[in-house]
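> forwarded from #structure-qc
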């Protein structure tokens, strides 16, 4: 699935509180996607704010005018967001795949008037034994010698 940019928007982004904050204008690409996240901060944001991300502890650290600004989340919130995103992505993928399969697959309608004879394969004069591995004479398969033209 592809996403196309609908345009760009410049937003004033502020991190932290009144005592120690950083404020910059960031340019975001606007796309129409069903996602759990409202915005994704990537390398341009990290470069502009001089952010050091720590993905293990879900923290962002950046220099502030008075001290280091630390932003974080908790694991249960991150898990909830990831789980919702997974369910959404799975649902979208399945709906697209199902539509594609519906267009490609022709409905198979069995012919109930046609009779087929199913017989069990048993070692008779119509079969012969073939060794699978010459070093093991006990490993053999039975193959049919006169198969129908179908």
């Amino acid at each position: 699935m592809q996403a196309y940019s609908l345009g760009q928007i410049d937003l004033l982004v502020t991190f932290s509180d009144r005592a120690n904050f950083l404020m910059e204008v960031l340019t975001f690409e606007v796309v129409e996607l069903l996602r759990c996240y409202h915005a994704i901060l990537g390398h341009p944001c990290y470069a502009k704010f001089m952010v050091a991300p720590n993905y293990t502890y879900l923290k962002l650290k950046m220099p502030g005018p008075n001290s280091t600004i630390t932003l974080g989340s908790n694991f249960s919130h991150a898990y909830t967001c990831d789980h919702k995103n997974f369910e959404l992505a799975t649902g979208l993928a399945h709906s697209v795949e199902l539509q594609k399969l519906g267009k490609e697959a022709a409905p198979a309608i069995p012919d109930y008037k046609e009779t087929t004879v199913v017989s069990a394969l048993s070692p008779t004069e119509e079969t012969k034994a073939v060794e699978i591995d010459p070093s093991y004479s006990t490993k053999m398969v039975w193959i049919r010698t006169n198969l129908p033209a179908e």
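QC bot note: The first helix runs from residue 43 to 49. The radius of gyration is 32 Å.
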